[in-house]
Amino acid sequence: MKRIDDLLSEIEKKKQKLSELGRLSSVTKQNLDDWYKIELTYSSNAIEGNTLSRAETALVVDKGLTVAGKSIQEHLEASNHAQAWEWIINRVSKNNYIFRENDLLELHQIILRRIDETNAGKYRNVPVRIAGSRVILPNPVKVSNLMKVYFEWLLGEHNNSVLRACDAHYKLVSIHPFTDGNGRTARLVMNLLLLSSGYPPIIVRKEDRHEYLTSLETAQLGGALDKYYQLMLEGLSRSLDIYLEATGAKIQVDKKLLKMGELAKITGESVPTIRYWVKMGLLPVTGETKGGYQLFTRELVKRVDKIRELQREKRLSLEEIAQELS
Description:
Blueprint (H helix, E strand, L loop, with lengths): L3 H17 L5 H22 L6 H10 L8 H21 L8 H11 L28 H15 L6 H15 L6 H15 L12 H12 L5 H21 L11 E2 H8 L3 H9 L7 E2 L5 E3 L3 H14 L4 H8 L1
Antiparallel strand pairs: 1-3, 2-3
Helix pairs in contact: 1-10, 2-3, 2-4, 4-5, 4-8, 5-8, 6-7, 7-8, 9-10, 11-12
């Protein structure tokens, strides 16, 4: 696991390189904004249980079409989140924009528009629990005051704008000020703050859902925030790579080969799973150590993600996935 300081240093180097390359063209920037609108909408809603695929999300958002077999709420969650992203892009484009409490309530109102008009843009007045979690959330009587303290903290001095954005997300979901839409709103707030500070947004990927929720719960129960920071900073580093690639810059890739156990650890898969996929021909072996350990390139991390995506979204068998990948 990379140290938090190392990840922050890596992020700053990439951001500096992006700054040196100059402004993105208006066409490239618009393409990136449009891509992130769909990707953030898909991933953020998927974490909360929305079953629209990435392609279906694009149809709903870009074409205004309905998808057979999906609920009205799932359609509204997609269109609302996309509108919330556009709201953010509009706000951060203004000079000297400062995110305040009224902005948070307006953002939440967009997220729950036509889904729960009674509670949209309003702090909760009822107790709430997170399903399957041992975390005890604040009493509703305390929410209003906790949010005042939250914004005093947010508008205060901070040493690092990236950690400020990550902390803003963590603190908001820990207060859980709304009856619904807390996670989606908190992720949008984090990304709004990142954009305001000159960084790209973080995509919390669907496949990282378990690690993401577990890292939050660990901290909320009194543990360290390290795992949470690591997940967020790795996401930000990936986004910087996307922006750098959009400029035509070459990304330096660590060419160090991975042992099977290392590949399993990075991807979150078990060693027996990786070994079986190698046997099936899904993961090519690059070489062996003197001790006989198989070695793999880091590019296979993306292939492992692709295998899982094909299993989830297309429900392909391993034999079918082997054909698809070839």
